[in-house]
Amino acid sequence: MDTMEKLRILTDAAKYDVACTSSGVDRAGVKGQLGSAAACGICHSFASDGRCISLLKVLMSNACAYDCAYCLNRRSNDTPRTTFRPRELADLTISFYRRNYIEGLFLSSAVVGTPDYTCELMLQTLYILRREYRFGGYIHVKAIPGADEALIRELGLLADRMSVNIELPSNDSLKRLAPQKTKESILAPMTRIRDGIRENAHDLVKYRSAPQFVPGGQSTQMIIGATPESDRRILQLTEGLYKKYSLKRVFYSAYIPLVEDRNLPALNTAPPLLREHRLYQADWLLRFYGFTAGEILDDAHPDFNPVLDPKCNWAVNHPEEFPVEVNRAPYEKLLRVPGIGVLSAKRIVRARRETKLDFDGLKRIGVVLKRASYFITCQGKSASRIQTDNPAVLMGILRDRGLPQGGFQPEMPEQLSLFTPTKEDGVKCLTGQL
Ligand code: SF4
Predict the structure, then answer these.
(1) Residue of the nearest CA to atom 5 in ligand 1?
(2) pLDDT tens across 339-389, in order?
(3) In this structure, which residue's CA is closest to atom 3 in ligand 1?
(4) Residue 194: CA atoms inside 13 Å, Cβ hemisphere, count?
(5) Among 75, 172, 373, 381, which residue's beta carbon has the most beta carbons within 10 A?
(6) Which residues are CB-contacts of 243 (< 8 A; sequence separation ≥ 6)?
(7) Cα 424 to chain center, whole Å?
């Protein structure tokens, strides 16, 4: 098989991997070396149809020894198999970089023989790139669960970001659908990477020239909708991962049924895109808005409201917290008002040192008043005559968003895309300002 055919197969096989949006690494070009890495997000990949992208997202191999039921690359699936040689992939990456097709590499792999052997292939590729080509561009590499600690450490010294896919939200689901993987084999490299990052931070303070270990941090990816766990369970797991493993990001991937299996949703089941979208919104609330998983969803409400985003849903269900007086409320309380994002909360705190804010001022600051007005007062005045404990709040929000006021309709579009149903939703998708 020639290199282009391998590339076609192995970029196509990598397209369901979503665990990368941002390098988080800022490295200027150095004389005598090739490339640099920008801290701003790099989130595209090299598609098999040749579209211009920023990262070459590719598998080392799709010849997997494992048989995870949900995966197209699983051993029992009848699909063309191939594996890059390390030099072949390193040469390809460099030639794409020199042609300005890509800014970096996102390398994952199926398990070729054993996790250790797979890691060795990836390690050789990264070694050629970093040491022979002196490539300074961004590299994200997936750690293979079950690989030796020493190999994970070596990979971490060459990569900018690493990730270990958590795959499924519970141990039971893992046993049923990915029997060759165990919770322990997934968490062990995650622990190793976390500890390596911490030790490295310590070393860098002590010896400024210490080599960097995974400077862009680690992330993970979870498949949503292939197994029966509730949104609450997934969010609790996410919260635990952020706390325990200091992850940069948890990525969610709506399950797309591509294989027939009695333990999986039927082939014609639509991917749960709205659920994936709600998880990303709740994820922002965990990381930037001071919410806990238990506040967003509880025993009585284990799944997201399909009509309202999680912050709005929380606010509607907690009328006792409102209204919030924007001229006095602490930053943490402002953050909980629907329509006030992190940026506008900071601007409010800054602006009110100089002046008393009114509704026009809030609008100029960037507050989405059509949503916030139900939950705030400005100098004691409310812009909405509806009280927050009135069900009319919910109806008003739905009306403003152009959604049916009788509740969720099954025929409603599932995914909130960048362009529909409202421009405001598009902005929220991009900025996480809820
Ligand atoms: S180990 Fe990875 S590539 Fe192999 S079958 Fe499982 S999910 Fe697919």
Answers:
(1) 74
(2) 999 999 999 999 999 999 999 999 999 999 888 988 999 998 887 766 655
(3) 110
(4) 17
(5) 373
(6) none
(7) 21
